[in-house]
Write a structure and sequence with these properties.
This protein is an alpha/beta fold and 363 residues long. The chain has one domain: Rossmann fold (3-Layer(aba) Sandwich). It contains eleven helices and ten strands. It has helices at 100-111, 132-149, 171-178, 186-191, 198-205, 219-226, 228-231, 257-266, 283-292, 314-333, 344-348, and strands at residues 36-46, 52-62, 80-82, 93-99, 116-120, 159-169, 246-252, 272-277, 298-303, 353-355. It has a ten-stranded mixed sheet with strand order 3-1-2-5-4-6-7-8-9-10, with helices on both faces. Helix 2 packs across helix 3 (171-178). The longest helix is centred in the C-terminal third of the chain and has 20 residues, at 314-333.
C-alpha cells in the first residue's frame, strides 16, 4: 500500500541457534518444522461481487519422503513443490491468509510447522486511496470461503478454516488490520479533507502513506463499490470487513489511521500482533493505531534500527516468521506454551527489539 512496492521474492531465512533451551539470542520458531511444503493453484469467481475472478495459491504440509532429513535453510532454503501429496498426519491444520506477494516471504516456513496458507494472487501496493482498499480485504474473505467450502482437489479435510488468521506487510498489513474487526469511519476520514487535523497532518508530513483525499473527491462512488451491506449501519461506521472464522491478525508495517480513526480502531475485537521497524517512516502511524485498537489482546514489537525495507533482509524476515509461528500457534492451535515466544519477557531478552510503546521515538 506504500509508494514503495514489494517485489515478489522468496527469501530463504537463515535458521538461528538450535532447538535447545531458549536463550536471549535464539529465535527457535524461525527454524523449519517437520513437514515438506506442497502448493496448489485455484481460480474461482466470487458470486457476491459480480463474479469477480480470484486466483489463489494454497500452501500445505506435504509428505516428506521416508528417511529424508529436515531441510537446512542455510543451504537449500524451504521450497514449495507443486502437487505434492498432502501430509494428513496432523490434519486439519489452521489456516493463514494473505496476499501471495507476502506469502512468498513467510508461507513455506509456517506451513512446515503445520499450517495451511491460502494467498490471493495479483494484489499489490498502490500509491493513492482507491477501490483496492475495499477489494483486497474482500478478496481475502472470498479466499477463506473458497478453501472452506471447495478446497483444491486432494486437500479435502486438510484445512481447519474455523481457525483462521490473517497476516500482511505494508499494503497487506492494511488488509490484515481491516480483517481484525476495525471499521471504516467515513465521518472522520471526510473531515480530514482538505484540512486534516493535527494528528493526521503529522502522519501526512512523513510522506510515506497512500492515504490521501483522493477517495473523498468521489466518495459516493467509493462507498457504492463497497455496497450497502458494508456501508449501512446505525452508528455511522461501516461494517467490519471480516469473518467470525478469522480469530487473530498480524498487521506488519501497516497503515489505516486516516480511514479508521479512533472510533473505527476501537471496534477491533480479536487478538492482534503488530510488528514495525523502529526507523520505519510509518512507525508513528503504527504507534497511533496500536494505541486506539479496542482489543485488549494486543501486542506491538518494533525492530530497532530497521526501516520499512526490512522485509528484504533475511534476518528480519527470519524473526518475523518466528513471531508469526508463535502468535498463530498460540491463537489458532491453542498452544499456550508458544505465547512466551512473542511475549514482553521474550522481547526484553533482545536488545534490538522494543515492546509496545516502551520507546516511542524512532531512531
Amino acid at each position: 500500500m506504500s509508494s514503495r512496492s514489494l517485489l515478489i521474492v522468496l527469501l530463504a531465512a537463515a535458521a538461528l541457534g538450535s532447538t535447545a533451551a531458549v536463550s536471549a539470542q535464539e529465535f527457535p520458531l524461525s527454524e523449519p518444522g517437520p513437514f515438506n511444503v506442497g502448493v496448489k493453484s485455484d481460480t474461482f469467481r466470487d458470486p457476491a461481487r459480480q463474479a469477480r475472478e480470484i486466483s489463489l495459491t494454497v500452501w500445505y504440509p506435504s509428505v516428506r519422503p521416508q528417511g529424508s532429513p529436515v531441510p537446512d535453510p542455510k543451504k537449500t532454503g524451504l521450497t514449495a513443490k507443486p502437487g505434492d501429496p498432502p501430509d494428513t498426519s496432523g490434519a486439519p491444520y489452521p489456516l493463514v491468509l494473505s496476499s501471495t506477494k507476502v506469502a512468498r516471504f513467510f508461507a513455506p516456513r509456517l506451513v512446515s510447522r503445520g499450517f495451511v496458507w491460502a494467498s490471493v494472487d495479483g494484489i499489490d501496493s498502490y500509491r493513492e486511496m482507491n477501490e483496492e482498499m475495499i477489494d483486497q480485504p474482500m478478496d481475502i474473505l472470498a479466499a477463506l470461503e473458497r478453501v472452506a467450502s471447495a478446497p483444491p482437489p486432494g486437500l479435502e479435510g486438510l484445512i481447519d478454516a474455523e481457525h483462521a488468521g490473517a497476516v500482511g506487510y505494508s499494503f497487506d498489513g492494511y488488509n490484515s488490520l481491516a480483517l481484525g474487526g476495525v471499521r471504516i469511519d467515513p465521518g472522520y476520514y471526510l473531515a480530514q479533507c482538505p484540512r486534516p487535523d493535527a494528528t493526521t497532518a503529522a502522519l501526512v508530513r512523513g510522506g510515506f502513506t497512500a492515504f490521501s483525499c483522493t477517495a473523498a473527491g468521489s466518495w459516493e462512488a467509493f462507498a457504492a463499490h463497497a455496497g450497502p451491506a458494508v456501508t449501512t449501519s446505525s452508528d455511522g461506521l461501516w461494517q467490519p470487513l471480516t469473518d467470525r472464522r478469522i480469530r487473530a491478525v498480524m498487521p506488519m508495517a501497516c497503515e489505516g489511521w486516516w480511514l479508521f480513526g479512533a472510533r473505527g480502531l476501537a471496534a477491533a475485537d480479536r487478538p492482534t500482533l503488530m510488528i514495525v521497524g523502529e526507523r520505519d517512516e510509518m512507525r508513528a502511524e503504527n504507534l497511533l493505531i496500536f494505541r486506539y485498537l479496542g482489543t485488549p489482546e494486543k501486542a506491538l514489537i518494533s525492530f530497532v534500527g530497521k526501516s520499512h525495507m526490512m522485509i528484504y533482509e533475511t534476518g528480519a524476515v527470519t524473526r518475523m516468521a518466528h513471531f508469526a509461528a508463535a502468535f498463530f500457534g498460540h491463537r489458532l492451535k491453542g498452544r499456550e506454551d508458544l505465547a512466551f515466544y512473542y511475549s514482553r519477557e521474550f522481547v526484553a531478552g533482545h536488545a534490538d527489539l522494543v515492546w509496545g510503546t516502551d520507546r516511542n521515538s524512532s531512531k
